[in-house]
């Protein structure tokens, strides 16, 4: 499959969306925890793991986007 610049820009958009939504979720999760919301420990751990994994995925998509946009083609 041949990737073009438009694919790179698509990955930029996906990356931006993921970072925005997961950071907002992390902020809300932190606020709930700081407010003393009564949840089991597993809830906080599971959601923290989800945030970390998805931000790592966003980093991978960003790397892929940069490589795709820098590629000059043949």
Care to give the gist of this entry?
The protein is an all-alpha fold and about 70 residues long. It contains two helices and no strands.
Task: Write up this protein.
Keywords: Membrane, Transmembrane, Transmembrane helix. InterPro entries: SCO4848-like (IPR058061). The chain is mainly α and about 70 residues long. The chain has one domain. Helices cover about 80% and strands about 0% of the residues. The chain contains two helices and no strands. It has helices at about 5-35, 40-70.
Features:
mainly alpha, 74 residues, single chain
Fraction of residues in β-strands: under 5%
Order of helices and strands: HH
Shape: elongated
The biggest beta sheet reads: none
Domains (count): 1
Number of helices: 2
How many strands?
Answer: 0
Q: What average pLDDT do the residues reach?
A: 94
Protein structure class = mainly alpha
Using the CA coordinates, give the radius of gyration: 17 Å
> Share of helix among residues?
over 70%
């Amino acid at each position: 499959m041949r990737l073009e610049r438009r694919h790179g820009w698509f990955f930029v958009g996906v990356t931006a969306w993921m970072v925005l939504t997961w950071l907002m979720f992390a902020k809300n999760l932190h606020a709930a925890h700081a407010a003393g919301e009564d949840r089991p420990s597993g809830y906080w751990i599971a959601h923290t793991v989800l945030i970390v994994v998805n931000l790592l995925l966003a980093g991978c998509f960003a790397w892929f986007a940069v490589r795709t946009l820098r590629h000059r083609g043949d």
